[in-house]
Design a protein that fits this description.
GO molecular function (chains A, B): adenosylmethionine decarboxylase activity
Shape of chain A: elongated
EC number (chains A, B): 4.1.1.50
Cofactor (chains A, B): pyruvate
Oligomer: homodimer
Subunit structure (chains A, B): Heterotetramer of two alpha and two beta chains arranged as a dimer of alpha/beta heterodimers.
Order of helices and strands of chain A: EHHEEEEHE
Largest sheet of chain A: 6 strands, antiparallel
Pathway (chains A, B): Amine and polyamine biosynthesis; S-adenosylmethioninamine biosynthesis; S-adenosylmethioninamine from S-adenosyl-L-methionine: step 1/1
């Protein structure tokens, strides 16, 4: 089954609350994740909310990586969406786990743009 | 069941190929979508690929909206991820459909950050 994009939906609970509120650290984690995947960064944007929480998006030549955090709940929602066979989104898991230290991690693996070949 | 984010995963096929390759038009569609949802735009970034295709991400005070297009296949992958009860991601569908004119649209509705209350 051919498809255009690999999209990992990550639910992280029990993360380090300080890391979840660390805008610079999250930006570095995004860059590390982009590199780990073998992707090409076009630009990155992070935003710190008051009183807490960070949003970050890395725009890639191969789609995007996003994060939204709730430090008060120890929760982060991350999406790693890549296209192209030279990029492996699962490789982003290592830098993400190292930085956020989630006690519990769920991964939903969604294929985007599925193309059914004739006869299948 | 309480949750933190509403995430609509949209698969659009049979779109207008010109619209899929129209960077300015896609940027306007993203802004219209943000407004339709009742969300607050922090920043927007679009990128045009050679020979074709556009990526766009709108970073919101309430998470993000992203689009990646394949004009040669008439396909777009869109994610509308919002948090907060004042924002309704489904309202983004109207400006998206009006601009891209998909012949076929699939919607996957994913709740992010589900919090189980005690006793449930």
């Amino acid at each position: 089954m051919r498809y255009l994009g690999k999209h990992l939906i990550l639910e992280l609970w029990g993360c380090d609350p300080k890391a979840l509120d660390d805008q610079e650290g999250i930006e570095k984690m995004l860059v590390d994740s982009v590199n780990a995947c073998g992707a090409t960064l076009i630009c990155i944007k992070t935003h710190k909310f008051s009183p807490q929480g960070v949003t970050g998006v890395a725009v890639l030549a191969e789609s995007h990586i996003s994060i939204h955090t709730w430090p008060e709940l120890g929760y982060a929602a991350i999406d790693v969406f890549t296209c192209g066979s030279h990029v492996e989104p699962a490789n982003a898991l290592k830098p993400i786990r190292e930085f956020l230290k989630p006690k519990h991690l769920e991964v939903l693996d969604v294929k985007r743009g599925i193309i059914l070949e004739e006869g299948k």
